[in-house]
From TrEMBL:
It comes from the Eukaryota. GO terms for biological process: actin filament organization. Keywords: Actin-binding, ATP-binding, Calmodulin-binding, Motor protein, Myosin, Nucleotide-binding. SUPFAM superfamilies: P-loop containing nucleoside triphosphate hydrolases. ATP binds at residues 156-163. This is Myosin V. One of its GO terms (molecular function) is actin filament binding. Belongs to the TRAFAC class myosin-kinesin ATPase superfamily. Myosin family. GO terms for cellular component: cytoplasm; membrane; myosin complex.
Length: 203
């Protein structure tokens, strides 16, 4: 028995769209290498099958907090999942051990406060919602357990939120969390917290 076809009459797929990049729709007819699709905004379009992607059957209301839970991992599915989460201010999503952050361009109340730091401290990776503090926690714990240095790679295009998420100044989230884990003691010269916040970065 062969693998069942992913595009067939009645199946739900993603097709390219000049306005919204990818739009979902239902296959009406297969026409050789092409497919006729009724899009979710009510149009009928024809697309090359090789440029379509199967759509996950279930649309999780809050999206999947880890991309590895998607039945189909492709650009359209990944973007759709990030969009669903973004609409409800869930800017963080895992892809396995990697954290994807979508720039909210607004202050999200409570997301980075001391209560949130307390929640993530000591929590096993993956137990709580995806968060930059979970990445800091995992890196810090590994460093302590292995007794070796550790590093966190932050990557993204200009304006994506790398600086805000990680680097320099006391307000930046990742360093703030590591400083919090490192502790703060009065009267002992420069505290671990202060030293962590004074580190330099390789940019
Ligand atoms: N998590 C966040 N919460 C709130 N605002 C954010 C967040 N991430 C980014 N921003 C907003 O987006 C702006 C641009 O982010 P940032 O400067 O971190 O980008 P960058 O990736 O470091 O860009 P570049 O590579 O050009 O330096 C910030 O000044 C801030 O207004």
């Amino acid at each position: 028995m062969g693998t069942p076809p992913k595009v067939y009459e009645g199946s739900h797929i993603w097709v390219e769209d000049p306005e919204v990049v990818w739009i979902d729709g239902k296959v009406l007819k297969i026409l050789g290498d092409e497919v006729e699709v009724e899009t979710s905004d009510g149009r009928t379009v024809t697309a090359s099958i090789s440029k379509t992607y199967p759509k996950d059957e279930e649309d999780h209301a809050e999206g999947f907090n880890d991309m590895t839970k998607l039945s189909y991992m492709h650009e359209a599915g990944v973007l759709h999942n990030l969009e669903i989460r973004y609409q409800i201010n869930k800017i963080y999503t895992y892809s396995g051990g990697i954290l994807i952050a979508v720039n909210p361009f607004q202050r999200l109340p409570d997301l980075y406060d001391i209560k949130m730091m307390e929640r993530y401290k000591g929590a096993p990776f993956g137990e709580l919602s995806p968060h930059v503090f979970a990445i800091g926690e995992a890196a810090f714990r590994d460093m302590m357990n292995e007794g070796t240095s550790n590093s966190i790679l932050v990557s993204g295009e200009s304006g994506a939120g790398k600086t805000e998420t990680s680097k320099t100044k006391t307000t930046k989230m990742l360093m703030q969390y590591l400083a919090y884990l490192g502790g703060h003691k009065e009267g002992e010269g420069r505290s671990v917290e202060q030293q962590v916040l004074e580190v330099g970065f390789v940019i």
